[in-house]
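Consider the tokenized backbone below.
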């Protein structure tokens, strides 16, 4: 047997063993990863809805919508929205009132934006008193006709939020994701 055949056989065996090890590790870690992601999602749902509510899951195709009820009356909905930011996919949990007219709360679930700029959409270290100010400002924002943003100014309308200086693309992406996601969930529930 020549050297080329020996190299091919050795590399094939190494590849098979490596593939087997990765398959075993994936089978071992996947349930733990899924459980952790479910835990994060459930915590996010609790954060974007009012306290003391009962939540039920409504499945609409591949989308999960959490319906919040209090004393038998629907008080809001929570659902996950996502879309492209400046350099990553942004995943946000949003809670809205039962008529979809106002945001109850938002929670960033995943983002990998530019460190020090785009990451300020989740945590802004320059605002020591309220590092989560950007996402917090969506609380109480009206969704009709649509959420918009202003640059270098305080919001003057009930549908406006303030964009982050130096991270306008990420700020605009969050606004677009929320507008599109709320519209889509509203249509799914025929509201």
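A designed sequence for it:
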């Amino acid at each position: 047997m020549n050297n080329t055949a020996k190299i091919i056989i050795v590399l094939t065996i190494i590849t098979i063993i490596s593939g087997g090890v990765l398959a075993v590790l994936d089978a071992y870690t996947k349930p733990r990863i899924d459980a952790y992601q479910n835990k994060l999602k459930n915590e996010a749902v609790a954060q974007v809805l009012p306290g003391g509510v009962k939540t039920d899951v409504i499945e609409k195709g591949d989308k999960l919508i959490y319906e919040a009820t209090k004393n038998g009356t629907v008080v809001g909905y929570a659902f996950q929205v996502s879309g492209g930011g400046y350099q990553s996919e942004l995943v946000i949990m949003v809670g809205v009132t039962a008529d979809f007219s106002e945001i109850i709360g938002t929670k960033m679930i995943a983002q990998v934006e530019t460190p020090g700029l785009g990451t300020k959409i989740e945590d802004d270290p320059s605002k020591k008193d309220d590092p989560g100010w950007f996402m917090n400002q969506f609380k109480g924002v009206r969704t009709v006709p649509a959420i918009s943003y202003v640059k270098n100014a305080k919001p003057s309308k009930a549908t406006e939020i303030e964009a982050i200086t130096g991270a306008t693309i990420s700020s605009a992406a969050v606004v677009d994701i929320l507008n599109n996601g709320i519209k889509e969930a509203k249509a799914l529930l025929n509201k």
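Helices lie at 3-48, 133-136, 168-188.
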